[in-house]
Here is the input.
Amino acid sequence: MAITNAKGPQTGFSIMETMVAVVVLTVGLLSVATVFSSSLEIIALAQADSIAQHQAQQMIEGIFAARNTGAISFSAIQNQGTAPGVGIFKDGMTAALQAGPDGVMNTADDGPALEIGPNGRPLSNFQRQIVISTVFLQDGISPDPNERKVQVWVQYRLGRMVRTYTQVTYVSTFR
Here is the structure.
C-alpha cells in the first residue's frame, strides 16, 4: 500500500533494488582497487628496471673508463676463472657492492658496502655478473687478440618475480 500525502503517493527502493545496487557498486570498487594495485606493481617494476639498466650501463662505462685511463690493462679485462691471475672480473652472480679503488664493478676489490640506489637505499635485491668472452676472427677459429665481448647481467627480485636485464658490448685494445 502506498502512502499518500498532499503531493501524491511516495514510494522507495525495495530491499532487492538496494542489494543489486550494493553488488554493482562492490564489483566496481573491487575493479578499481585491482587496477590501482596493478599500477603500483608496474611502477615498482619500472623503477627496478631503470635501476638495472643504469647498473649495467655503469658497469660497461667503468670498464671503458678504466681501460682508457690505464687503470686496468686490456689483458685484465677477463673473468678470473677464464684467466686465473690475470682476469679481474668475478665469476657468477655477485651482490651489487660498491666499486673498489679500481673504479670497476664486480672485481675483487669491491665492497664491503652495497651499492646505493637512486632512492637512497642499498640495492640488496640486486645481483650482477660480467662475462668476458673471446671474439673470433673471420675464419671462426683464430681468437681476435684485440677485441673481447662483454656481457653484463643485472638480476633483481621484486616480490616473487625474478627479472634479469642484459647488456652486450665489445671492448678492444684501441681507445
About this structure: The longest strand covers residues 143-158. The radius of gyration is 29 Å. The chain is about 30% helix and 25% strand.
